[in-house]
Amino acid sequence: MPPLPFSEDTLRLRAGDVLFRRGLQYAGQGRAVLVAAGSRSAVAMVMGNHEYTVRLSVATGGLTGSCTCPFAEDQPICKHIVAAALLWLEDSDPSVAEPAAGPAPQVPDLREFLLAQDREWLAEQLLALAQDDPSLHPQLLIAAGADPEDSIDEDAVRGQLLASLETGGYVSYYEAHDFFTGIGDALDSIEELLELGAPRAAARLALLALDGFEGLLCGVDDSDGGLSVVCSRAEEIHLRASQAVPGDPRELARDLARRALTSDLEVFSDAAEQYRDLLGAEGLEELRDAVEERWRTLGDEDRAHRYQVAGQRERIAEAIGGTDGLVALKKSELDTDGDAAALVNVLLDAQRIEDAALEAQALRERFGDSARFRAVAAEAFARAGRYDEATELSWTNFVEHPFLRTFQSLKLSSGPAFPQRREQALAILQEQAAEHGAWSSFVDVLIWDEDMPRAWETATEHGARDSAWLALARWRAPIHGAEAAGVLHELARAAVSVGQRGAYAEAARFLKEAMGYVSGADAEALTEQLLDLRARNCRRPALQDEFTKAGLPG
Length: 554
Prior knowledge:
Blueprint: H1 8-15, H2 17-28, E1 32-37, E2 41-47, E3 51-57, E4 64-67, H3 79-91, H4 110-115, H5 119-132, H6 136-143, H7 148-151, H8 154-164, H9 173-195, H10 199-214, H11 226-244, H12 249-260, H13 271-274, H14 276-297, H15 303-331, H16 337-349, H17 353-367, H18 371-383, H19 387-400, H20 404-414, H21 418-436, H22 439-448, H23 452-462, H24 466-476, H25 481-496, H26 501-515, H27 520-536, H28 541-549
Antiparallel strand pairs: 1-2, 2-3, 3-4
């Protein structure tokens, strides 16, 4: 096919930087597919808010195109046309063109040509293009000194956003991807306003988007988290827009608080941290006052909202006063063992170990009956080097609840005192395993404690979880490859019984790993077992495919 009479550069000039960048992004994401392509025309399908049909032509010597998207109804080019044109350029390969009958035509230097033209003629050409190009027109106005906020078409972007939020009924799981893609396109347009130098418009529309998202909670299947993604992006656009044109910090604080305190999506929940520099002392105080007022009106029955507002109070306290501010808030509300544990954790997270240990000591008499508080206090004492106190608390917790978690806490907080307690703890766990048949839990403890010989012996005699067997097989492989391979073969058989492709792929990985542990007669025996497994599942093409892809015999 002969070379197409346009290039990426001419396409960029025609579309403008913003539309070209969006089209390039679409092409790179694989959203455009050529349905038909020749030397003079092409047809493509491009996935945006919906699937759009793009028709391209170079019959007149330059690129012309049409698209079924709403934007292209009034404009000569859109990002879908750009994406399709880029794909057409990529598809055309000049190397397969027939040899030219004569010398190759000379391509004029476009820059030199334009520099040589009359300024009035150039202005007329640009103005003609700008009349039909929603991206070029504001760029030229802004370059001429116009206020960007007065140059962009905010109403058009608002219309696109509102249209993208229309559900037309319940949006199912299978429709959700396309639905959120449409919202993403609208957010692209809002971001373009920000890039064009219109941050106030971008901020207004970002808030409009966030308000609109609140109404989607019951109207869209959000199993894949698309709503969270678009919320985060709209919040990011609003933050960038606010940074571009800082306004009254108190007004900003009231606006953030109003939405944060009423949002079911928890928008602006991190406003104190993210907007701290913009809010300053005045704005943070205004934000704190609004949140505190809401806190005082909450009833005990509104537990979910109470938890949400409590988190905001803590973030605001930390934004205003740092760790000391957060500690002061925590100390003012020490009502439960959870409050006490949280206070000590704040100091531990801030690496104020001595302070954490002192608080733990002061609170021990009041909350020492709580396993939750004892665990945190033990950590504080251990990190402060007070191992006797840490061991005492951890041992009490372990004896009350002898499980892997409390065994881990005992080892981590006892320091040099742990060897004295280890055998006692293992004896308790082993007795519990024998009494309740909980040998798999005992094996998990031994593996975590890196006592692999005892774990292997216990698992062999009493059994273990599959995850434990996998760890044990890999430990056993350098000692006895055939035994390790046998374990992996059994894990593969169990995976096959699940009857799903993902499980078949996992079985193939187990068997391939097992083959690396054996040689000679052991390898021959494992190969026979593998072939038998294939034969027993000859009517499962997905299994055969996964085994073959893994390079297994058969």
